[in-house]
Specification:
This protein is mainly alpha-helical. Helix content is 57%, strand content 0%. The longest helix has 28 residues.
């Protein structure tokens, strides 16, 4: 090659040969250089994709794979109509079972001495029990007669036997105790008249049976904003509060004439129009009037338990629930929930919303109005211990709605994550105080964690999850509900999403019980692959970049034993399934996943990441069982069909082969190791070849390995790989060739395969952007020229000349560090380039240049240069 061509080449910009001409960008060079920094230590963290999310064909409370027995979970499908809501004027048994005749006459003297048991608010609201009886027996008699009269259209009386009726109609003369009131089925006009307030029992603040409104006592008043607010603009509520109970006397504020007039003029006409529209099946009008009623009640602060005619309005709404239109039902359900119902009505309303949310075609309806706010308010105000089933359906609705991307964003903005975090903390607090983790609490948590799983996908969710300490709360729930497979699956799904980010990994790794919790899950659910694969993925994320996490996980009692147990079980399952048609899981993106292989991939990744720690690595390297399992994977799997599993396994072997200890199982089994790696080298897969060569770079420190590989012509293959066009492939090839050039018998091969020319081209193309690689090239040539007598004979005349010129140029500081892209290189990269040039490249390059120049002449020096 002429000097002119050499000079011309110098004027050409240096370009990595794997890039097309004209397509080289300085930013790309910088990016590739940065990426190469983390992959040169011989140890590498294994990267894998997140476990696939199975496609859910139907929306339900619990998925098809749920481990819950039917009797331990509410059903997702049920019939629901107006009859399932309890009007305050009904008292039929919820089971609708006909009452049996009474076989004996109770003693009136005993009954008169017993104090009546006060019913709970839920029993009163649901209509299961009448309001608290007054102390005056005569008032009990009149109240009974009035209620009996109102219920004549029902079948209660017909269900009683003639014996019971005769006892109820017993005359006063037949009764010995004068204090016991006479009980009669029929009543006269006097007894049917409207009762005074104190006789109606309104002082208890509970919902009362419906009575025909009178102009004086039923109509509800217009109230100005001032009349409904106190000082400072705070809204005034009745003394009943959210529970429906009054102050110390238990009294509810009596309805005023103004309130009654407001009801008669504004609310009652809307109720009548709703009823008329329903009877005419005018659904459009019914929906509009329902909206008008809701807006009016909201504007006048009459939602919740503030409205005196709350029971009357609710009864009217209940009768409309049979409308065959989900939009109408959702509007009515919103009204019911906004009234803060409790007991059976709360349960039925939540079930109705859940039923509507099961059909994704109804999702747009939940974006209208404030139904999402009402649902979140119900979540906040419902006690998980006394109304657990209602809360299951309420949160279940939110869970189903989070399957819609638009609704998810709205729920995040409305602090749904924060509200669910409050629920989790409340349950954890109660359990810490001594309560037992119950099945119903587990059902609530399954819905809550499933909703959080979907909410975790939004942009701002990670900051919210960290801010309200959801990660810590979930760790505590693991400790209390480890046996709940459904719950553990949901929690592992949440963590598999959030631990893709370093800040969440750090928060989880710093939690004092996280490692113990995950080990407990793996021990409890070893054969539940969907749980194991996700927990293993989470542990792999935690140990990928965190050195402390690697040590803490390995030191956790039983951690490595359970990893090996999982490895053995799923490897055996995989071997058994080979050659059989196995059912593959269909992911949301439509791809199919071999669940057994996926578990193996994640478990092996954890082992690979653990082995990076300098204290843990040698221990794992000495574990023959672990190394045996890894080799069995490579012996039974093909890279063409199980690429990720094979590559992860080779990467793990590479990490373990880094530790050259006396007890190393890799060294003991190195023949077996080499045989499985040769199979990968011959496969038509560049990544597999690179990973195998990484192991060769560690193992070729031993001459027996170099000799074995030389017999298999692996050294020649490595020279060929110098032309691969891949920076890391070239780097790995150079690393192995350095070891091969130690043996004098292997050196001629380099020149025979045109390796000298290839190395010069590598040095020319990569040096200014990768001084580490340039240093490796110089080390290969240094080892190769160990027995040099003539530079031309050793390298070749043209190669010797090109090498001399190139090394001189690269050792010139101004020329070497004058980067055409230095304006785009940050300070860290600039410092890195200068440091590696000074400390790694220059020392070996200077020695190599000096050796070449010293042996440049073909003439042998004379013994007596001055002559005779």
């Amino acid at each position: 090659m002429s000097m002119e061509s050499n000079a011309q080449r110098k004027r050409q910009p240096d370009r990595p040969f794997y890039l097309p001409k004209g397509d080289t960008t300085s930013s790309r060079i910088i990016t590739e250089a940065k990426e190469s920094l983390n992959n040169r230590t011989g140890l590498q963290a294994v990267v894998t994709k997140r476990p696939s999310t199975p496609r859910d064909a139907t929306r339900s409370l619990f998925g098809a794979t749920s481990t819950r027995a039917p009797e331990n979970r509410p059903p997702s499908s049920f019939s629901l109509g107006s009859r399932h809501f309890d009007g305050a004027d009904t008292s039929r048994p919820t089971s609708r079972t006909r009452l049996q005749p009474i076989n004996h006459t109770p003693s009136f003297s005993v009954l008169s001495e017993e104090k009546p048991k006060l019913p709970s608010e839920e029993e009163v609201e649901s209509g299961l029990l009448p309001p608290k009886p007054p102390s005056d027996p005569n008032k009990v008699q009149r109240g009974k007669a009035t209620r009996t009269r109102l219920q004549q259209s029902t079948s209660v009386e017909s269900s009683l036997s003639s014996e019971v009726k005769s006892r109820l109609d017993t005359s006063p003369s037949d009764v010995k105790t004068v204090d016991e009131p006479v009980r009669r089925v029929h009543s006269g006009p006097k007894e049917r008249s409207s009762l005074p307030v104190e006789e109606r029992g309104e002082g208890d603040g509970r919902e009362m049976p419906y009575r025909a409104p009178s102009s004086a006592s039923v109509r509800s008043p217009p109230r100005s904003a001032e009349s409904r607010t106190g000082s400072g603009g705070t809204k005034r509520t009745s003394s009943a509060g959210s529970t429906g109970r009054g102050g110390s006397a238990g009294k509810r504020e009596e309805e005023t004439a103004e309130e009654a007039l407001f009801y008669s003029q504004n609310i009652a006409p809307l109720l009548e129009r709703m009823t008329a529209a329903s009877s005419k099946k005018d659904l459009k009008k019914l929906g509009q009037v329902t909206e008008d009623l809701y807006s009016l009640l909201q504007k006048e602060n009459l939602l919740g338990r503030n409205c005196k005619q709350r029971t009357t309005i609710l009864k009217s709404i209940f009768k409309l629930l049979d409308a065959d239109d989900t939009r109408i039902q959702l509007k009515l359900a919103r009204l019911i929930l906004a009234f803060k119902v409790t007991g059976n009505n709360l349960l039925s309303a939540c079930k109705l919303v859940f039923k509507i949310s099961r059909n994704e075609k109804n999702d747009p309806e939940f974006l209208k109005g404030d139904i999402l706010d009402v649902l979140l308010d119900t979540l906040k105000s419902t006690d998980p211990f006394s109304a657990s089933e209602a809360l299951v359906f309420c949160i279940g609705s939110l869970k189903l709605l989070t399957g819609n991307a638009t609704i998810v964003k709205q729920l995040v903005k409305k602090d749904c994550i924060e509200n669910l975090a409050i629920l989790l903390n409340s349950i954890n607090k109660t359990i810490r105080e001594g309560s037992e983790p119950s099945t119903q609490l587990g059902n609530i948590l399954v819905q809550a964690t499933a909703a959080l799983r979907n909410l975790a996908d939004t942009g701002s969710s990670r900051e919210r999850l960290l801010g309200c300490q959801v990660i810590e709360a979930l760790c505590l729930i693991i400790d209390s509900f480890t046996s709940d497979g459904d719950l553990m699956l949901n929690i592992s799904r949440i963590f598999s999403k959030v631990t893709l980010h370093t800040d969440c990994c750090t928060a989880l790794a710093d939690h004092p019980t996280s490692y113990r919790s995950f080990v407990s899950i793996l021990q409890k659910h070893q054969h539940k692959s969907d749980v194991v694969v996700r927990v293993s993925f989470v542990l792999g994320n935690m140990t990928a970049k965190n050195e402390v996490a690697r040590l803490r996980l390995f030191q956790e009692a039983g951690s490595f034993d359970i990893l090996l147990s999982l490895f053995r079980f799923y490897l055996e399952q995989d071997v058994k399934n080979q050659g059989k048609e196995t059912k593959k899981e269909v992911a949301e993106d439509g791809s199919t996943v071999n669940k057994t292989e996926d578990v193996l991939i994640k478990v092996i990744r954890v082992i690979a990441n653990l082995s990076i720690n300098e204290n843990v690595g040698p221990v794992i390297c000495s574990n023959y069982q672990c190394v045996d399992f890894l080799l069995k994977v490579l012996e039974t799997k093909e890279v063409s069909s199980s690429e990720e599993l094979v590559l992860n396994t080779v990467a793990t072997i590479n990490n373990l082969s880094f530790y050259n200890t006396k007890t190393s199982a890799i060294t003991t089994l190195q023949v077996r190791v080499l045989e499985v790696l040769l199979k990968l080298v011959l496969a038509n897969n560049m990544e597999a070849m690179v990973e195998a060569c990484r192991v060769f770079a560690n193992l070729t420190r031993q001459k027996v390995v170099r000799d074995f590989l030389a017999e298999q012509k692996i050294d020649r293959m490595l020279v060929t790989m110098l032309d691969s066009g891949n920076r890391e492939v070239v780097y790995i090839s150079c690393g192995v060739l350095i070891n091969f050039m130690v043996d004098e018998e292997n050196r001629p091969m380099l020149k025979q395969e045109h390796g000298i020319r290839k190395l010069i081209e590598v040095l020319r193309d990569f040096s200014r952007t990768d001084w580490e690689l340039a240093s490796l090239v110089c080390q290969i040539l240094w080892n190769y020229s160990g027995k040099i007598t003539s530079s031309n004979d050793c390298f070749g005349q043209q190669e010797s000349q090109d090498l001399t010129e190139l090394l001189a140029e690269l050792l010139d500081r101004d020329s070497a560090l004058d980067l055409s892209f230095k304006d785009e290189a940050d300070d860290e990269m600039t410092d890195y380039f200068e440091e590696t040039w000074t400390e790694q490249f220059c020392p070996v390059a200077e020695q190599l240049l000096q050796r070449i120049e010293t042996h440049q002449s073909d003439l042998e020096p004379l013994d007596n240069p001055s002559g005779s």
